[in-house]
Design a protein that fits this description.
Layout (H helix, E strand, L loop, with lengths): L6 H6 L21 H12 L9 H11 L20 H9 L16 H11 L3 H5 L3 H8 L11 H12 L8 H5 L6 H14 L8 E2 L5 H10 L7 H12 L5 E6 L11 E6 L2 H13 L4 E14 L12 E5 L5 E14 L2 H14 L19 E4 L6 E11 L2 E7 L4 H11 L6 E8 H8 L5
Antiparallel strand pairs: 1-4, 2-4, 2-9, 3-6, 3-7, 4-6, 5-6, 7-10, 8-9, 8-10
Helix pairs in contact: 2-10, 3-4, 3-5, 3-10, 5-8, 5-10, 7-8, 11-13
Keywords: Signal
Protein name: SLH domain-containing protein
Length: about 450
C-alpha cells in the first residue's frame, strides 16, 4: 500500500524509468543445502528431521508436505489403523507412491528408498518410465552403480533422482552405502519434495545474481492492477464509510514463503526505486533472496484534488459522494537475508539512503519516501508492533494495516458491511516512520 503521505503527487506521477547497475561483487548464489531445507521445514511445516529416521517417519514426513489425505481405508499387513503412521501410509498408498501393503514402518530408512519415494512424491513417475537403459546407465554411473543392481523401475527412479538433483552430488555415496539415510540426506530430499509440490520458497533470484534486474523488470512489467469485484465491493464500502483508510490487493500465489526469521518485506510503487534498492544492497555487500509480489494499493482520491488522470498503472472509480477510489499498481519486495545480522542491517541502510528527511535531500536513491514501509513477522529492535487485517477470497486477499488497538473496530466495521466477512488479524513489526504515519502523529 502506498502509505506515502504525498499521495496526490504519487497518484499523478507513477512513471517508472529503468537503470541497470553493475555488480558490486561476483554474481554467485550458493546452492541449496540440507541445513537451509531443514530450517524451512521446521519454520513452515513444524517438521523436525530426527536422527536415525525410520521408513515410517519418512512416510509421515512426506505426507506432511503433500495436500489432502486418504479418502479410503486400506489394510496393511504390518500396520494397524491405530498406528501413528497409518494415515500417512494410507495417503501415500492411495496416491500410488507406496506400491506394497507391507510398509515396514519400523525399519531403518535406506537412502535409495527415500530417493524413489521422493521422486514419486515429486510427481516424476511418468518421467521415470521414459528412461531407457542407456539413460539409466548414464545416471547410475555417477554413483558408481549399474542397472543390474536394481529392479528396473527402481533403477529408473534413481536415475531421475540423480538427473534432477533430488539427490545431489554430495549425497551420491549414500545411495550405494549399506547404512541408513543420514539426517542431512533426509532433510534435502524432503526439501526437494516441497519444491516440486510448489510449497517451497518463491523468488526471482539473489540480489547478487547478474540476471536479477532483468527478472525484476519483467515481473513488474507483466503485472497488472488487481481487480477482484466481489471482494472489492466489500473493501470499497469499508473505505467509503471510513472504516479503513486504504487497503492492498494481493495474490497469494506470488508470496515468497520465506523463513520469517530472516525475512523483511519492503513496499513501494516505482520500479526504478526497486532497482536502485537492489544496487544499494550490492554496494553494502549484503545478499538476499528477492521476490517481487505484485500489489494494488487503493485509497480515497478526493474530488478537490482535481480530475484524476488514468493510465495502465493508475485507475479510479467514482463513488457516491463525488470522490474516487484510486487504484495504484505497486509491489512488495520480499527479502530473505543470509544472516540475522544482514536482516538487522537493512533498516540502517534504508534510513541512510532511502528515507527522505528533508525536501531535495541529497544522497538518497530515486523515489525515496518520507515514510518508507518495511516490516517483518518477527520482533526486531527499533521496529514497532502493528496489525494486518486481511479479508480473503480464493487466492486473492485485501489487507489493511492498522494500530493494534484499532483491530476490533475494523473487524466490527467489516461485519456491518457484510455479516459473512471473516477478518484475519495478526500482529507484525514495522518501521517507526510508518507506525507514526498510521497514528497520525508525525508526518515525517
Amino acid at each position: 500500500m502506498n502509505w506515502n503521505s504525498t499521495k496526490k503527487i504519487a497518484a499523478l506521477a507513477l512513471a517508472a524509468s529503468i537503470v541497470v547497475f553493475p555488480l558490486a561483487k561476483p554474481a554467485y548464489a550458493a546452492p541449496l543445502t540440507a541445513d537451509e531445507y531443514r530450517t524451512f521445514l521446521s519454520s513452515k511445516f513444524d517438521l523436525t528431521v530426527s536422527d536415525n529416521v525410520t521408513k515410517g517417519q519418512f512416510i509421515s514426513y512426506v505426507a506432511e508436505l503433500l495436500p489432502g489425505e486418504a479418502a479410503e481405508e486400506y489394510t496393511f499387513t504390518d500396520l494397524a489403523a491405530s498406528d501413528e503412521f497409518y494415515k500417512a501410509a494410507a495417503e501415500l498408498y492411495e496416491k500410488g507412491y507406496l506400491s506394497s501393503t507391507t510398509v515396514e514402518a519400523k525399519q531403518q530408512l535406506d537412502p535409495w528408498v527415500a530417493a524413489i519415494l521422493a521422486v514419486r512424491a515429486a510427481g516424476l513417475q511418468e518421467l521415470a518410465a521414459t528412461y531407457t537403459d542407456e539413460k539409466i546407465e548414464s545416471a547410475l554411473a555417477k554413483i558408481n552403480s549399474s542397472s543390474s543392481r536394481w529392479v528396473k523401475h527402481v533403477a529408473q527412479e534413481l536415475a531421475v533422482a540423480i538427473d534432477n538433483n533430488i539427490v545431489p552430488e554430495q549425497f551420491y555415496s549414500e545411495l550405494t552405502a549399506k547404512q541408513p539415510a543420514s539426517s542431512d540426506f533426509v532433510a534435502y530430499v524432503l526439501g526437494e519434495v516441497a519444491s516440486y509440490n510448489g510449497s517451497y520458497k518463491n523468488y526471482l533470484g539473489y540480489a547478487s545474481d547478474a540476471s536479477l534486474i532483468a527478472k525484476l523488470i519483467s515481473a513488474f512489467n507483466s503485472s497488472d492492477i488487481i481487480q477482484v469485484s466481489e471482494l472489492q465491493k466489500i473493501v470499497d464500502t469499508a473505505l467509503e464509510q471510513e472504516i479503513i483508510t486504504g487497503y492492498n490487493f494481493k495474490d497469494a500465489r506470488y508470496e515468497a514463503n520465506f523463513v520469517d526469521e530472516y525475512a523483511i518485506t519492503y513496499g513501494h510503487s516505482d520500479l526504478k526505486h526497486a532497482i536502485q534498492l537492489i544496487g544499494l544492497l550490492r554496494s553494502e555487500g549484503i545478499d538476499a533472496k528477492v521476490q517481487l509480489e505484485p500489489k494494488t494499493s487503493a485509497f480515497l482520491y478526493l474530488s478537490e484534488w482535481g480530475e484524476p488522470s488514468e493510465s495502465e498503472s493508475f485507475q479510479v472509480k467514482q463513488i457516491n459522494n463525488g470522490n474516487y477510489v484510486a487504484f495504484s499498481k505497486e509491489y512488495d519486495l520480499s527479502f530473505e537475508f543470509n544472516t540475522i545480522e544482514d536482516k538487522e542491517a537493512f533498516q540502517q541502510i534504508v534510513l541512510d539512503y532511502a528515507k527522505k528527511d528533508a525536501d531535495d535531500e541529497p544522497g538518497l536513491i530515486y523515489g525515496s519516501w518520507w515514510q518508507p514501509l518495511y516490516y517483518t513477522n518477527t520482533q526486531l529492535e527499533d521496529y514497532v508492533s502493528i496489525s494486518n487485517n486481511k479479508v480473503s477470497l480464493g487466492n486473492y486477499y485485501a489487507q489493511t494495516f492498522s494500530l493494534n488497538e484499532q483491530v476490533k473496530d475494523i473487524a466490527e466495521g467489516f461485519k456491518k458491511v457484510n455479516a459473512d466477512v471473516e477478518v484475519e488479524s495478526y500482529q507484525f513489526w514495522a518501521n517507526i516512520a510508518f507506525y507514526n504515519y498510521l497514528g497520525g502523529t508525525d508526518f515525517k
